[in-house]
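Bumping with the actual sequence this time:
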Amino acid sequence: MKNKNKFPKGWDEKRVKGLIDHYEQQTEDEALAEDEAPFVDDQDTMMEIPRKLVSQVREMIAQHNKKLLKTGS
């Protein structure tokens, strides 16, 4: 029996391979810049939240982004 990989919703083998290629081809400088990027943008903030609240926070962010798309802001 062949073992079939299971991917999260919206993912497939091609997407996974693309992600692997991205990180394998990245230089150290590119990786560092990518890691530091969230801390450079003054429009976003990084914060620690309890794990049990992650899904609720993600939903709030999704709703916020939908509103931004509708208003074009």
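The tokens above came from a reply further down the thread. The chain is about 60% helix and 0% strand.
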